[in-house]
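Question (not urgent): is this output format expected?
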Amino acid sequence: METSKSVFETLAAINCNEHTEKKNGLTYLSWAWAWQIVKQNYPTAFFTIYEREDGIPYFTDGSTCWVKTGVTIEGLEHIEYLPIMDFRNNSIPLGNVTSTDMNKAIQRSLTKACARHGLGLYIYAGEDLPDTDEQTEARPLMQQPSTAVQARRAAKITAPAAGQYQPMDEEKYWKVVAAYASGISAKSGEDYRTAWAKMTNAGAAQIVKFDNDVANYIEAHSPKKNVRRKPVSED
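Got this back:
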């Protein structure tokens, strides 16, 4: 008897390469195409753009800003936090953020929330093609030695920075998340969460976001992909 595939298995098997573009060495997936594919496969799916109490659709620590979006498919919501960044992928100071910057961040955030459900996730993991069913069974992502080594090498933690919270480069940040979720220790012997917090001078809000990202990363790569883990906080 053939069992139906989970949402993650269905979306993770889709080849997105023809709908990507590269900017500044990073690969981006077309948000319009991503949402089209999600809706074609799951018509009841919907997204949420979270707002502050005053109705503004971004959050701030007084220095920089980030957006918060969620994509819900078959009752399971994956939430994505994304800094509002410039073309160099550096956080834009609060006073310089425009509506265009905010809109771009929201669309990118929604695309990455779709990736948490499986669509194009391999792009953010640095792979060229999605795993086939056979590859997925034989080589679970959380058990790949090459992935763990790559995460450890890419997520090198340097001396702590001074001053206010200083966000890490987006790509490097997710490699730190992957390394911590995989149980890898930094060269200092500390866990990557502690080392990252020291390097960026992360406050309570940033640490909560990091923990949520780790929980979502583990959920996305767990064999039990339909089991929802409650995030530490959604605020």
